[in-house]
Every structure is written in C-alpha cells, then in structure tokens.
Design a protein that fits this description.
This protein has helices spanning 14-20, 23-66, 76-90, 98-121, 124-156, 161-216, 219-227. By secondary structure, the chain is mainly alpha-helical. It is rod-shaped, with a radius of gyration of 30 Å.
Length: 228
C-alpha cells in the first residue's frame, strides 16, 4: 500500500520567515531593521534633548519678558544665547541708533540660537528618508519574494498553498518590516519638526524682549569709556 508523502512544514514565525527567505529578501529585511533601530535611536535622543531645551526656552522667555536676571553662565542653549546678547551689548558704537543697536544684539542672539538648533536638526533627514523610502524598499522585497513563489510554481507544476504560501509570507513580511520602519519615522519627523519650530518661536520671543531691554541700556559702554 502506497504511503502519501507528508507535505513539507514551514515555520511561519517571524524568525522562521526570516531564516527561510531568499538571500536578497533577507538583505532587505536586515537593512530595514537597521534603519528602524537607527530611527528609534534618533527619536529617543531628540525627545530627551528637546525636553531639556524646552524648559530652558520657557525660563528664558519668561525672564526676558518679565525683566528678570539672565545669567550668561546658564547651561545650555539659553546660556549661549544670553552670552551672545551681552557680548554684542558690550561692543557698542556711540554713532549707532537704538534701533541699530537692538538689531545688532538680536542678530547675535539669533545666530547663537541657530547654531544650537542646527545641532538638534541632525538626524531629521535620516528620519525623513527612512519614512519615504522604507515602504518602497519593503515593496522590493515583496516583489522579489512573489517572483520566487511563481518560480516555485513553475518548477513544481503545483499551485497548492503549500508551494505558494511560504514565498508570499516572506514577501509580505518584508513589506511589514518596511512599514514598521517607516510609520514611526514619519510620525517622529513631523513631531520633532513641529517641536523645533515652537522652540524657535519661544526663544525668538525672549530674544526680542531681551534685545529691546539691552538696547535701552548703554551703561556698559559708558563704564568702558570711564575706565579708559
């Protein structure tokens, strides 16, 4: 009596799908996983740094609006902005008008702020690139896996699910990894960009208030003239 051969079993777990995948599909999966890890590293780093600088921005804006004391020795972005403002404040020209003096002081503070914000923007381009490219990279792995499934059908002359399903599952797994990498990257990019814009507005409001206050005060210049 003839025995019917048992259909080959396939491991459809995540690890099994990866191990059974074609080398090219494996490469796509590894690339997407690395991109996802890189995105999460950037996201966590930016969130922690923005949390600290957001507090500095609130303190700086409130103190500048209320006429409170701002120490150039303060740590972080606010300290560098205040230090730049006081440096421009000390370097006064008797011939300049108050408006010119205010513009020069504010320009110095905005330059210091821009230098710090550029550091915070590092990595955002990677998030944007991953968010836009990861689905297409995953789709490439999907197309490749489906091509392998059709090749398996052609070689075995069998269209049963036992022949087609593994290749299709591997292909769809590549797409899923692409979406897992892309969706957080897009969300994080939009949030971080918005947070940076609000942070810049908060500092800009403080810079305007502090610049106006410093432009009215010519005491450092007078003291320097008396010393000479």
């Amino acid at each position: 009596m003839e025995q019917i051969a048992a259909a080959p079993t396939h491991d459809l777990s995540f690890l099994g799908l990866f191990l059974q995948a074609d080398p090219i599909v494996k490469g796509v999966m590894i690339l997407l996983v690395l991109a996802s890890l890189g995105c999460w590293t950037i996201i966590l780093d930016k969130l922690l740094r923005l949390m600290a600088i957001r507090r500095q921005a609130r303190t700086f804006e409130n103190a500048a609006r209320a006429g409170g004391k701002l120490d150039p020795q303060m740590p972080g972005t606010s300290g560098r902005v205040v230090a730049a403002g006081y440096e421009a404040w000390r370097d006064q020209d008797p011939s300049e008008t108050r408006a010119e003096r205010r513009e020069r002081i504010e320009r110095a503070m905005r330059a210091a702020l821009s230098a710090d914000l550029r550091q915070l923007q590092v990595g955002l381009a990677f998030l944007a690139t991953t968010g836009s490219a990861a689905p297409f990279i995953g789709l490439f792995g999907t197309v490749w896996g489906i091509m392998n499934s059709f090749s398996a059908i052609a070689s075995s002359q069998d269209t049963s699910l036992s022949v087609v399903a593994p290749g299709i599952a591997e292909a769809l797994f590549a797409t899923a990894i692409g979406l897992v990498a892309a969706i957080p990257a897009v969300i994080a990019y939009n949030k971080l960009t918005t947070d940076l814009g609000r942070l810049q507005q908060s500092f800009a409001a403080g810079i305007t208030a502090l610049g106006d206050r410093l432009a009215r005060d010519r005491k450092p210049h007078l003291r320097s003239e008396a010393a000479e």
